Amino acid sequence: MIDRALYVAMTGASATLKAQASVSHNLANANTVGFQATLSGTVAAPVQGEGFDSRVAASHRTLGVSAAPGAINQTGNATDIALHQDRWLAVQAPDGGVAYTRAGNLQLTANGLLTTASGLPVLDQGGAPVAVPPNESMLIGGDGTISVVPLGQPPSTLAEAGRLQVVEARTDQLVRGDDGLMRMPAGADPAPPAAGNVLTAGALESSNVDATSMLVSMIQLSRQFEMQVRVLQSGDESARASNSLLSSR
To answer: What are the Flagellar basal-body/hook protein C-terminal domain coordinates in residue numbering (predicted)?
Structure first.
């Protein structure tokens, strides 16, 4: 019995540390534009291997990504966009593939390339990086269309310069990678393009992390870890006492 208690407490403490890391990651991104909180939990996992099925481990599991919408903040910036529910902006990932994000704080490089705040090229409907020509002003429409007034021309010369690739997919249909970007699962069909009004221009979606609940979770996990360590200490003391009694015979 002591052995089982030690095993459960040990794996539980390990899972709690991983859960604390997940909560810390959420808290660190409480002010990150378009960030969606990671959902995680602890589950019972039978230990596989030789011998009797008498051991059950506590295992930390990432359960997915929160689909709760973040607050929309008006900025008035021409390159800021807030994507509507279940809408994702296609970007070129560092590995060259297509990935999706809800971070709408876009920026223009000196060469006119439209990128995310982290420098990832934003893709157009054809899958090519969006390049905006020199202009007097730029406007992003609700359907993702980019319109510009050419440099040196009057406002009446407003012309279309491209269109953002915005796709439609539920959060649970996508998988978040280690780089924080969302992708379709391996072998799945590409996400379909979103039609109609897909975004709000001049606004940003804030992180959906609830900092208060995350802080409460961190306190609860800390107390849980302390109790698990106490179980380990108590089990060790009981084992020492049992060994002492046996050796005294």
So the answer is: 201-245
| Portion of the chain with pLDDT greater than 70, in percent | 89
End-to-end CA distance of the chain: 22
Q: Taking 70 as the threshold, does the pLDDT of residue 246 lie above it?
A: no
Tokens at 127, concatenated: 């899958």
Parse the chain into domains and list their residue ranges.
2-67+209-247, 72-205
What pLDDT band is residue 127 in, cutting at 50, 70 and 90?
very high
Residue in 149, 39, 140 with CA at minimum distance from that of residue 82: 140
Helix-helix angle 2-28:211-247, to 10 degrees: 160
Which residue matches tokens 């930390």? Answer: 60
Q: From the DSSP assignment, how many helices (H) and strands (E) are in the chain?
A: 2, 16
Residues in contact with 26: Cβ distance below 8 Å, sequence separation at least 6, in sequence order: 37, 38, 209, 214
Specify the pLDDT at position 74.
96
User: What's the sign of the alpha-carbon dihedral 58, 177, 31, 163?
Assistant: negative
